[in-house]
User: Which sequence fits this backbone?
């Protein structure tokens, strides 16, 4: 995909290592605003690391990263609050209730209190909102995590296995919030390549931290997808 | 209002984190009861170990200060556990807030824990080791303990934030924290000594008050300067 001036994400030669191990190597990607990037690859391919760099939680070690028009990590402060991260961890305190957790995030993000109630309703958790998170099922916790991730109406959603622990009904429930219908720029990873490909405008297939494929979903051969996860 | 607006002022974010920390502690009762129990148990050990019903002067001050210091180390060790284990760091770092808000909140939370600890430990100290004139000298004792608490809270928070990023965090906290706190320990104990002496003054010596205040100020400035880097990748 060609470089465009209104790209929501621009990576140029991005590399990142942990100690001696290089996790991402020389990635160059441009994602237009409003589009969805699916990042495919087996465990350890570097998907979560890429998402954490985009979320300003990790620094790139080489190359340049621009998110929502701001260069990271130098201007990370300017994009925090415009990004929603739904990762492996729900980022919720187990001994607080769902309502207390969302209230805490609302205060950090300067979001009106009514938005908390609105989000509890949107994920159908208003009746269980006063129970400690540790007593909720994993699916319910994931629904609360979805509410937490979009509480502040982020422009960019970073979704790491967003439908894990969600049954089909819950998956449909959160679809308008984090799916294509949300209208947000999205970067998502999934263990279900078929689902990720159906959602994507652009696919980045990672193998050993390198871009094995970058292009539209239609250009990705099913055999290549199988090989990616082999 | 959404998160695309200006960053939350540091004091508002700090209040949000402090409120959350106190709520978590009230809900779980994991830290303060452990600190109080440890302090009371230590005083019982001193009572029987020294085989004394009453202590006075520098010995009494040393026993009280060391007991509170070790009890405080329990609190500092747990200060960032929920942030690390339940994603609190990531959630905080994703928010458009000044990162020093976390420092202010944790120092304030630890100060609250220490005050509650002392509300239990000082009466237990009076009961078990009967220092003379504790009632008369109480305002001076409270001043010295408050200055000592600030030192414990600032240095304890800084060291805890450093230790929680390491695999050996249970060891790093005391190993790094205790040496850094030795000057504050000395000043607090020396300041308290005459207050707990039968023939001593009822107000603390100015030099120890000034030393502790200066230690607190320098500690706070260092913590403010480096805390951001401790939260960085």
Assistant:
């Amino acid at each position: 995909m060609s470089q465009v001036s209104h790209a929501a994400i621009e990576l140029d030669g991005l590399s990142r290592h942990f100690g001696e191990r290089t996790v991402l190597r020389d990635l160059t990607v441009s994602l237009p605003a409003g589009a969805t990037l699916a990042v495919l690859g087996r465990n350890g391919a570097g998907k979560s690391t890429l998402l954490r760099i985009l979320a300003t939680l990790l620094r790139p070690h080489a190359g340049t990263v621009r998110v929502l028009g701001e260069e990271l990590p130098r201007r990370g402060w300017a994009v925090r609050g415009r990004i929603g991260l739904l990762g492996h961890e729900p980022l919720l305190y187990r001994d607080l209730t769902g309502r207390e957790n969302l209230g805490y995030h609302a205060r950090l993000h300067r979001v009106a209190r009514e938005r908390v109630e609105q989000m509890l309703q949107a994920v159908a958790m208003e009746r269980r909102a006063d129970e400690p998170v540790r007593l909720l099922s994993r699916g319910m916790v994931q629904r609360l995590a979805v509410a937490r991730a979009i509480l502040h109406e982020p422009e960019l959603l970073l979704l790491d296995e967003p439908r894990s622990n969600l049954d089909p009904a819950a998956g449909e429930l959160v679809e308008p919030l984090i799916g294509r219908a949300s209208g947000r720029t999205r970067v998502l990873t999934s263990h279900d390549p078929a689902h990720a490909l159906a959602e994507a405008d652009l696919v980045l297939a990672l193998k050993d931290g390198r871009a094995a494929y970058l292009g539209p979903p239609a250009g990705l051969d099913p055999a290549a997808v199988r090989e990616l996860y082999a | 209002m959404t998160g695309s607006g200006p960053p939350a002022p540091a004091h508002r974010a700090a209040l949000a984190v402090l409120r959350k920390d106190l709520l978590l502690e009230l809900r779980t009762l994991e830290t303060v009861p452990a600190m109080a129990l440890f302090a009371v148990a230590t005083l019982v050990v001193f009572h029987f170990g020294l085989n004394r019903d009453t202590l006075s002067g520098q010995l009494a001050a040393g026993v009280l200060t060391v007991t509170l210091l070790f009890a405080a180390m329990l609190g500092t060790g747990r200060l960032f556990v929920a942030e690390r284990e339940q994603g609190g760091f990531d959630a905080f770092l994703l928010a458009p807030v000044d990162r020093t808000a976390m420092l202010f909140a944790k120092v304030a939370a630890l100060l609250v824990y220490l005050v509650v600890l002392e509300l239990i430990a000082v009466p237990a100290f009076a009961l078990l080791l009967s220092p003379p004139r504790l009632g008369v000298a109480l305002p001076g004792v409270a001043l010295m303990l408050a200055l000592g608490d600030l030192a414990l809270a600032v240095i304890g928070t800084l060291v805890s934030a450093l230790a929680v990023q390491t695999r050996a965090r249970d060891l790093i906290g005391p190993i790094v924290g205790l040496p850094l706190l030795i000057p504050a320990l000395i000043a607090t104990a020396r300041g308290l000594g005459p207050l707990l002496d039968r023939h001593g003054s009822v107000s603390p010596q100015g030099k120890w008050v000034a030393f502790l205040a200066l230690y607190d100020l320098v500690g706070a400035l260092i913590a403010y300067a480096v805390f951001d880097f401790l939260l960085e990748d």
